[in-house]
Structure formats: C-alpha cells, structure tokens
Amino acid sequence: MSWSAPSRLLPVLLLFPAIHGQTTAPIQVPTTPQPVTGTVLNAATAQPVYRALVRLNGGQAPRSALTDSEGHFTFGAVDPTQITLSAQKPGYSFSSSGDQSAIPVRPENFSDPVILRLYPEAILKGTVTTSAGEPLSNISIEAHRTLSDETGAHHTATTAVTRTNSHGQFRLPVPAGDYRIESAFTRLTSVSAVLPTTYPPPSDLAQTGTLHVRSGDQISVDLRPAVSPLIDTIIHVDQSGPHSLQDAEILPAAGQPFPIPYTVSGSPEQIHMSLPAGSYTLQVRHFLADGVDSARVDLSPTSTPPASVTLRFSPIANIPVETLIDSAAASTAASSGQILNPPNPNSLGLTLEPTAASATQNAGPIRLTQHFNDGSSSISFTAPAGTYRLRARPGNNWFVSAAFNGGTDLLSHDLLISSSAAATPIQITVSNQYATLKGNVTVDGKPSATWIYLFATTPTATPILLLHSSDDGTFTDTVVPPGTYRAIAFSHRHPLDPDNPESLAPYSTHLFSFTLHTGDTPSLTLEAVPDQDILP
Amino acid sequence: MSNSSTLSMPNDRYDPIAPSMKLLSSSSALYSNPVHRPDPKASSYAKASALVFPRCHGIIAVASGALAVLLLIPATTQAQYRITGIILSATEGTPIPHARLTAEPDHPCPKPAPADTTADDQGHFVLTLACPNTWRLTAEAPNFASQSYEQHGPYSTGIVLTTTQPAYDIAFRMTPNSIITGFITDEAGEPIREAKVSLLRAEPGPDPPHPIANTTTDDLGSYEFPNLLPGDYQIAVQAQPWYAAAGRGGIRVNSLPNAPPAGQNATDPSLDLTYPITWFPGVITREGASFIPLAGGATQQADLRLTPIPSIHVLIPPNAAPGSGSEQGGDGRRPITIPQMERLSELGPSDFRPTSVTIAPDGSLDLGGFAPGSYGLSRFRSRGEQQTFNLAPDSPRTVEPTITTAPAEDSDNPGANHRRDFHDRHGDADRDQPRTQTVGLTLSGIATLAGKPASGTLLLLIPATTARTPQSVPRQQSNTDGSFTFARLTPGRYILIAMQNGWNLDLRNPATLASYLIHGQPISLITAITLHQPIPVQTP
Q1: How far is the C-alpha of B391 from the C-alpha of B400, rounded, in Å?
Q2: Which of A383, A456, A483, B392 could form a disulfide with A366 if both were Cys (CB 3.0 to 4.6 A apart)?
C-alpha cells in the first residue's frame, strides 16, 4: 500500500518504498593515533562556549579538556577507534531533552572538526512584593514544569526551588520547557501570612496554559501575592474509628490549591489550623486502608474569636473500569477459531490526567487501583472531584478503540467527576487490529538514528507514539493503532506538546500527515529536523 | 545597640509606673535573694506593690502607707503580671507598628499560658503573663531580624517580674536587618554555584568567632545572609572546582589486570584541583581572615575569588576501607562501599565529596579532591565512633593517611566551640543561649553600678589558669534587676568581671581585658555559688 505525499508542501518527504542506493566514496580509516579537534557552541546563540569541559571516552583512559576562549578543544594522539565526546558546563545541558549524554565519533571522521552544542538553561527571575510594592523576603518560589509522557499525558514536576532574598528577588535556573511559577504560602509572623500566587495568573491559565520557556531565555516575572491575617481555627473531624489525616489544602475560588499546615490538638478529632482570612474551600483528605476519604467545607474565616468548623468525610468517587473486545477484533478472531478474553485494565496502562484547569492538576495522573473484597477484586479509578482526560500507554497487545462513561465519549471529551458522583463504570473497548508502520529517516541526507513522533489527530487515548530509527535510519512498528497522524523526526529527542500547536509550528516543513487503517503496512521516508534547527 | 549599665526606664515620659519601679529596684533587699523567684516576705516591697497594683486596675495610685497595706492583699493573690512598653526602631527612634512579641519564661509557670501579643499602630504593647518569672522577650517585625530584648549575640536582658514587682515597662529597640552579601567566583572569574558559604560571628570576649549560619550560592555565585544583627562577622567558603568532579567521571573501577594501581591516577593533572577553605578577603587560614563590621540596617558586600590548588589523593587500603571485616558478602567477596566523608574545620563538620573515586583490584580506594586539613569518615558515627585523618599542608599529592578512631562528637553539638550549625539562610541565628559548658555548676549574683542594679551588663568568667588565651569564656548578661546566673560551669578558679559598655569593647585584644582583670572578683568554684555581695560593674 502506498500514498502520494503532498509534494507541493513536503518535497523531501517520500512515501514510497524507500530506495537507498547511494554511491559512497571509499572511507579513509586512520591506522595511527590522530588528533581530534572541535568547538563547543551555545545552541541558542551559536556563540563559542569558553571553559566548557569536553570529555573523550573510548579506547583508552578517559580524557578531559577545557575549551579556550574560542570554544575550541583539542585531544592529541587519539587511538583510531570509535570514541564518544561530550561537553558540559554549569548552566548548560548537553541536549535539549536530557536524553543524550555523548555523541559518537568514528575514526574515519577524526579529521573533521566536531561541533558540540550546549543548551543554556533559561532563567526565570523576578520579584515578590506586596500590593504596596514592599519586597517580600524569604518566600519560597517554585518552578513547576509540565511534561508529557509517552502517552501524551501531562504531569507536573517541580524543577527548581528557591527563596526570595532581602530585596524580594528570586532566580530559578531551568531547562527549556513549559512552566508555571508559584510562590508558596508563607507565614510572615504567627498572625499573618503571604498567600500563594501563580504565574501565569489563574485567569490566564485556561487560555495560555503555561509559560513557554526556551533555552537561554531570561524571563522576568513580578509576583504580588496577597498578605492575609491568620485566624486560629479549630476543625472538628466527624469520623469514628482509626484514621490518619493526610493533607489539608485550601482551594481558592481562582488559582492553584495550596497545602495548609495543621496540628492535632487535644484529641484526634480536633485539628488546629491558622487559616487565612477570606472565602475558599478547605479540603482535608484522609487515608484509609481501602481508599481515600475527603471532606470539604466552605469557610469564610474573617474574624476572631476562633472559627470552628466540622469536617464530615465521605469516600472519594470510585469509578469501576470494565473492558470489552471490539466487535471487529472479536469477529476476526472468531473467523480463525479463536476466542478472545478482555484484557485486564491494568495491562492497558490507563490513567486519568487532570486537565490544566483542574484544581487537582498538581496531584499528577490518577492510576488504577485494585480493591479486594470477600475474595473478589475490582479495578477502579479513585479520583477526587475534577475533570480528567483518559490516557492509555502505547505498545500493548491492545489499544483503546472506544471508551465511554455513561453517554460520555472519553476519547473526545473530558471526564467530569463530582464528589457526589454515582459510580458509573468506564467501559473500555479494546482492539488488537493494528497497522504496521515502517520506513527510514535521514538527517542532512544521511541515514541516522532519530526519534520519530506520531501525533494522533483523531480521538484517541494515546495521542503520541514515539518511534526510534536505528543507525541505518530504518524503523518498524507493528502496533500502530489505526487513525490519522502527523509524523515528524528529530535528530535527538525533543519533547513536544501535541496540545500546543505552537510547539510544532517551527517544524511545519518537516511534518507529514497520513491515515492508517487496520492492516496497513505503509513505508515512510522522513527527513529529520537536524540538531542545528532544533529550537532549544 | 547601646548597652544599658543602669536600670533603664526609657519610657518615663509616658508611663506613670516607672517611678515606682525605680523605687522598687533600688531596694537593697533584692540582693539577699538574687534568684528570680517571688519573694513573699519582702515587706519593704509593700509600698511599691501598692503603687503598682492600682495602676494595673486603672485606679489612681495612692502613696498612703495604710492604704498600701490594704492593697497588698489583692496584689499577692490577684497580681497581673505584665510587661508593657513600646517597640522602637533602634536606628530611627520611631515606633514600629504591629510588631509581634512573645515571652518565654526562664522557668516553667505553674499554669502555662500563651505569652504573646501584637503592638498597636503606635508600637505600644501590653503583654500579660502567667506568673512571676524572668521573662525573655522576642520581637519580630517585617524588615527587622527576630531579636530578643537588648540582645547581644545569644544573650539578652531578662525582665524580672515578682509578686512585689509584677509589672515592668520597657522600650524595646529593634535593630533593623543587616545583610552580608557577595559573589563567589572561580579562578576564571566565573560564578561558583552551590558553594557552601559559612557565616561566623565574633562574640564579646576573647573567643574566636563561631559559625552561626550557612547558605549556598545561586547560579550567579551570589549569596546573602539577611536578618543579621550588628556585630563583627567572618565569611568562609567551601567548594570544589566543577570541572574537577565533572572531568573525572565519578567512580572508576580499575578491575583490569593492567589497570594502574591506586595512587597512579590517569586523569589530566591540570584538572585535578581543589579549593581549600577560603576566608574573606581571600586567605586560606583563619588567622588571616578579616572581620566584616556590620552596623544595624547596613549591607556589606564580601566577594571572594577562589584559587585552586593541586588536589591530594588519599589512599585507603583494603583493611581500613569500609566494606572490610564483618561486611564481607556471603560469597566471600568483599562488597565495596564508598565512605561518607566529612571535612572537619572551624566551620564544623561539613559533607565532603571527593572529586574522584578509584577502586583498585585489591579493594583499596584512591579518593581525590582533598585539600590540607582534617577529615572524617562518618561510617561509624551511629556507633558513637568516628575515624579521622589529617592532611598536612606539605602532604605529597598521594598519601596514605594515618586514620585514628575516636569517640564521635555530638552530632547536635559538633565541635567544642560550635554551639549549633544553622542551616536556614533566614534562620534566627541569634536566639540560642550559650551552651559551651557541659558540667552543671552554677554561679549567681547581682551586678550593680553606683549601688543600683545594673541591667544588660556583660559579665565574663575568666578561667584564672588560662586567662590569656581561653578557648571558651563563660559570659552572661544581667537581667533588669541586675541578676545573672552562669550555668553548666566547670569547677575551677575564675575571675568574674562585670563591664560597663562591655558589649562594645574589643575584647579580642588581650590588653583590653587585662585592665578589667585587675579589679575582677576571684571565684573558686567547687559547688554552686550564690554571691551575696553585689558585683560592681567596672567602668572603662
């Protein structure tokens, strides 16, 4: 099977069975030790990097050298065997994604100067001041990076932490990526506290998501958190039997939830908190042997004497997950005399990913939990109220062909969970009717090991597939779910957010769209984005 | 902060209680009982108590003897203990609104109660307290370091409340934050990240400065110690050249038969460097370090450029290396673990990571990146033991040091002169009372000046036998009633001196101390002592 590529857009992309008949000149392989030279460049500015440390490994004892003011390095008399070179310097990384630690250099290339690129970190900096412009010192500032895993699911990682200095200033060195900056709840005195803030501000989060930071960027952000009095509050826990309070969070009407410290005072049924003034929801979670309970109360602590509130816990929604076989897959199997059994949901790598606008985003993806009762077990998602996307790990024997929660199509819509939701099961339909994709990739015209990203543009629980071509540029993947994709290859791993069209825009000439049907086995030929064109 | 050598009544102009307290404090009856306890039989206080009590209840004070006796009864049964006053900026003299005050008693109250309050818009406060006691007041306010009343380093003036003097009025002068900041750079002028910067402060007296806080540099090599009180400080830096560790590839196992034996490291010697502990303004010995004088509210910049020296390689033979002896595996092979190292110095124990680790086929270790100094293997710390070795300044590049095993120092109180290793860059580095002594003798007394209790006075207890260069001189600060108590003293002979303006004197100069020692009070300490004779405060 073959398609015609839209040649007016993508002249370099061929979708015919690849022809590799290249004529190459005889390769001169040295037989005696040779010098190896090169230059270390700043990947963002293309300027030489002074005093970068270059390491040479392979064949003999490791060697190291610092680059000169022109970024040059030289290793004399290197044995003629394959070596690897890497460079490093504080404030730089050797690859934009952290997956590459060194590049190989073959003896036949010793005479060619080597270019090593270092990606400068970005700096998120700024000030934290009161609304009156007074600097706030000793405020904890965190950079939260939004990352996509191989399923396309997002999660948040804290990449850098610092505190403001006496001028209220902070600096956060971070690798390129998508970030949210948060200033933490900080007690100023025993009776006042600085409330958390977020940048981009909550009002922008729904539209712009996160702050996109490129390698070498210096981004200034000024945060102006509110300063609130603290009010002593006694929380009565309406819960019998043993329990352990795990965390308490304040959920503001707008903005990210933040933890609030508490102490158990007197008896386990009473906890003591110093709560900021204002109106918000207080959520306390509480872990039991068989799940999680949570309690929410709406609070408006505004004045002394101490407020007093009661928490009544209720179980967090448990949503059973069921699997069934796609009818086409079942009939295909039946035609060959096979009977298929639905797979265990655990084998599909299912998760619920909180959406960006969800208050539970910081918690990360919700994974399946297995419950045992009276000798039987059930599998479910135990998730706090919020909105989620269903994600499935790729590369299984099965892929998710359909998913419904009641009447909601979970491949094209978010799952909305409320605290009082009835436990409507999620029904997952799976199929093993894959397509096979193969092909080859070149970098600057040479077959190379590359990373190939397939972005699904049709509804799916697995929006990204990641493939890898070997040194000869070839790749094969026999478990590609049918659907429409955009493919792009990079000379090194370069995470992209499929939900953010801007992240793909710079590489539009390297993108190729195609549709796969069950049983298709097409071949792709891709020209990868080379190192020097990857925007750090 | 200026010292106060007489009973201080800073707020006479607005507080009618002050005259009565002067009357009380001048009573000689105090000196017979210097311990900070209620004195129910002090009949001479009756008049003073009578004067104080009506104020507490908003009643006009009456200086009638008969009425005073009548009022004494409620005074002893319903006395309301309190400290009142105003919070002022020590530099501006202006009130500080909304400062937070907390009080801690020297001895527990029978019925403890919260002892905190917030000053009003004009800086005035009323702090109601649970019992008669010696109260330590701490104030906190934005842009001011958290500080105790008349604080000098770890010392402060306790406010003594008794049944006969249940109230006291003060002007709490807060010193604005002072800051020491700077940049740490390497030999090429590039910033050193994550360098450990230690701050040491000189205390009044001849003792060497001691570490009070640590911080680390940021990506610009910048560090900052905010929230400091006035005083003399020193800065010291510990770091490793980034390229030394990065260029050597972590742990290397020379397991091949032809691998170089331990001590013959094959890495580039031009990168095999280390930084010695470097003191401001750029010296590697403490003796050459400069003091950084810090005034209230001032910011001082202390930049340091580190210069690398060739690193020393330490060889640890198999029989001394961790993993030997009882840690042998079941297959008879000896598992190798890399020992956790500490650098031991005047800065206290500090984690030390060798820049290279090479394991020879025989199991011996070659650890690189050492500078001259003392080091510890913390492996046996949990057993109360520590292995240490010392590298002399003239050590060869590769050395097999003599490792000695000794009882480990208290990890909470490392070093005889290091009371505490503060980690919080914004921590309250100055709150601790001194804990330099370990034996439980006490010495109590009253300091007086011109026959009156001397509040806030520096007292030094100079060991008579080592008076010229004592390692640690016990010191104290007198309370509002002139009382003082030295605790945890070692038996011996001492000279006790009380010094007017002692906090401002350069006591590191032996000549300064010598003139006071002549008129000091000899003390032979065998058991706990309460001095019944007042200790006169010496004037310069």
Answers
A1: 10
A2: A383
